[in-house]
């Protein structure tokens, strides 16, 4: 994976939710993304929260908005079929912990970027909300697509595509490389080590 892909997906996928000014919520899916941004920035702006409290609140927001089990199933891909039930259970737990901790902490790196939503459209069995990240320093806006499943009142995010780079596809590529080299146990060991390091 390139450094650019790591940067875009690693720091952008959630940090851009911290929008100081909402876009145009012309439909339920777009309104869902705008509302998510508003709730995230409210947590960040609460200076009375300790780091652990802030991370716990981000965790709650993240788990409510993202379909982590579905994303985890996708990133394992074909390797899921050969994994044991115990391995799948441990992966789901470790993956959720890793994703939530990683992105909840990166939310704190918000530096004034704004999310401008541009509306949504159906695509296969998902809804895609199109948006742009606008930096306070100027420059070219970054395009971001939020892929949702469900309907109004029950939307879940299953992917974030930044400048045509898919978060779930990038993770699938990375995890597949680890599994092909050392098996499912190698992936689990890596996730355990990462989570223990904090």
Key features?
198 residues, alpha+beta, Nuclear Transport Factor 2, Chain: A, five-stranded antiparallel sheet, 7 helices, 18% strand, globular, disordered N terminus, signal, TAT_signal, Toluene tolerance protein
Could you explain the architecture of this structure?
This is Toluene tolerance protein. Keywords: Signal. Pfam families: MlaC. Residues 1-25 form the signal peptide. The chain has seven helices and five strands. By secondary structure, the chain is α+β, with helices and mostly antiparallel strands. It has a single domain (3-197), classed as Tgt2/MlaC (Nuclear Transport Factor 2, Chain: A, Roll). A five-stranded antiparallel sheet has the order 1-2-3-4-5. α2 packs antiparallel against α3, α3 crosses α6 and α6 crosses α7. The longest helix has 31 residues, at 167-197. The protein is globular, with a radius of gyration of 17 Å. 30% of the residues are buried. The model is unreliable at 1-13 and 18-25 (pLDDT under 50).
In short:
The protein is of the alpha+beta class. It is 55% helix and 18% strand.
Strand and helix layout:
Blueprint: H1 3-12, H2 28-45, H3 51-65, H4 68-76, H5 79-82, H6 85-106, E1 114-123, E2 126-134, E3 142-149, E4 156-162, E5 165-166, H7 167-197
Antiparallel strand pairs: 1-2, 2-3, 3-4, 4-5
């Amino acid at each position: 994976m390139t450094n650019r892909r790591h940067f875009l997906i690693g720091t952008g996928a959630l940090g851009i939710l911290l929008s100081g000014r909402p876009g145009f919520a012309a439909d339920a899916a777009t309104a869902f993304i705008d509302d998510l941004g508003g709730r995230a920035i409210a947590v960040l702006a609460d200076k009375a929260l300790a780091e652990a409290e802030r991370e716990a609140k981000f965790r709650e927001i993240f788990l409510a908005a993202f379909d982590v089990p579905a994303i985890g199933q996708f990133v394992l891909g074909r390797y899921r079929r050969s994994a044991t039930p115990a391995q799948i259970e441990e992966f789901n737990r470790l993956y959720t912990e890793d994703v939530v901790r990683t992105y909840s902490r990166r939310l704190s790196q918000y530096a004034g970027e704004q999310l401008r939503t541009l509306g949504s459209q159906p695509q296969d069995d998902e809804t895609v909300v199109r948006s742009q990240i606008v930096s306070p320093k100027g420059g070219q806006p970054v395009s971001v697509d939020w892929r949702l499943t469900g309907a109004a009142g029950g939307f879940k995010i299953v992917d974030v595509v930044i400048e045509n780079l898919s978060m779930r596809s990038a993770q699938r590529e990375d995890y597949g490389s680890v599994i092909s080299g050392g098996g499912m146990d190698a992936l689990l060991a890596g996730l355990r080590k990462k989570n223990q390091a904090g």
